[in-house]
Structure to design on (113 residues):
């Protein structure tokens, strides 16, 4: 399968990983939109939120647990951060491997619309 994030999981394309456990990887976004911008993904290939099956729901909890740890480690747990999932054309999703953006490190604009 030609999926760039699966290749990041496998290590066949380089990335700066800042988190890894059995089921989840977090790495620095190649085009950061904020001082802290980490992409958090399940190791399992799931195309997007619409592809999350009942059996995958524990992975969503794993991703949230990872996000909280990464926020602490990147120093934004107290100052604040945003966790964003893009799903489908109107969201601007570019990579079709489920992922969440952890953004922080400065005052984030609202709304995202
Ligand atoms: P999306 O728009 O699909 O929600 O976000 C995909 C994100 O992945 C973008 O912010 C983009 O900069 C990032 N990205 C795309 N390709 C790569 C890559 O090869 N390496 C890294 N580290 N980030 C990538
Ligand atoms: Zn994938």
């Amino acid at each position: 399968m030609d999926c760039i994030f699966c290749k990041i999981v496998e290590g066949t394309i380089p990335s700066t990983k800042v988190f890894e456990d059995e089921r989840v990887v977090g790495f620095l976004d190649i085009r950061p939109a904020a001082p802290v911008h980490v992409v958090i993904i399940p190791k399992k290939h799931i195309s997007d939120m619409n592809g999350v099956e009942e059996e995958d729901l524990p992975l969503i909890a794993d991703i949230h647990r990872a996000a909280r740890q990464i926020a602490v480690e990147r120093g934004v747990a107290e100052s604040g951060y945003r966790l964003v999932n893009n799903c489908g054309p109107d969201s601007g999703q570019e990579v079709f491997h489920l992922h969440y953006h952890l953004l922080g490190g400065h005052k984030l604009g609202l709304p995202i619309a």
